[in-house]
Amino acid sequence: MTDHRDIEQRALQWRLRAEGPGWSADDQVALDLWLAEATAHRVAWLRAGAGLQRLDHLQQLQPATLAQQLPRRPHQAEWQPEGLGWKGWALAATVILSVAVGLLGWQQWQARGVQMYATAVGGKEIVPLRDGSRLELNTDTQLRAEVDDQKRVVWLQKGEAFFDIAHDESRPFTVFAGDRRITVLGTRFSVRQDGRRVEVMVEEGRVKVEALQPKVDAPPTIATRGKRVIAEANNTLMADAAPPVLQRELAWRRGLLIFDNTPLVDAAREFNRYNTQQLQVEGPGASTTRISGSFEATNLDAFARLLQRAYGLQLEPQGAAIRVTAAGEAA
To answer: How many whole angstroms separate alpha carbon 273 and alpha carbon 264?
Structure first.
């Protein structure tokens, strides 16, 4: 099988799965990652969607006798990637007829400068944009970027990213995260979205943070170098972020987590962002233990062993988790 045909079949599989029952958030993340891998994947995805729509349309328009002869849209359970069968080949022929439609849609999308990016848990990616700006995506992050000659916009759908924005007074750079809009001309800053909480850290320059639909008449927050903005609901807090704080908060760019007298329960929450295996800190003895130092974000086992050696905490593997308790507190 050629790479091209493999990609086309893979795209059809994704389409059928996405439109079938049982589609989960994890499935969506996996699909986003696959789409982000290559332009050919995204083109094949559009072709598959156009082909399936055309197949449905033809079945609805044809007389009953002819409609019975047309290939029926397969369900997920019927899809056999290794052996297409006559239904699969008929569907593939329909897909081929839709290439022009798919390419037109994709070209229009590309002309708008729209790109999707995503990282898996523990992943990190550097993304150059066409305007000269550069993004760094942290673990488990999804965002959509639309950059063309008129506008520069990013929607941070989840996770965290660092923005190094090329200066352009004619095109402000806007980031949408949760219910907040962050606008800049040219600067370096990070945005982290954790549920409804949005946090902005400014390393250089100046950014404006404002609510999309403010319920109270409040002016936007202007944050300059060395400032941190934490926004949630109708509350916006701005605080100083001294160089050591900036270094600690942006250590993820070097693959590190830095803690300074941090409660273990908070340190574990950070580690869990970067690892599928999770730390579960239980009991007052372990939860109130405070941690200092720098650690490799994706090496959870090494961190757990240090807890055992340095603090005498007890580790108990439980499936995909490691339970951490103080001596004498284990159940």
So the answer is: 14
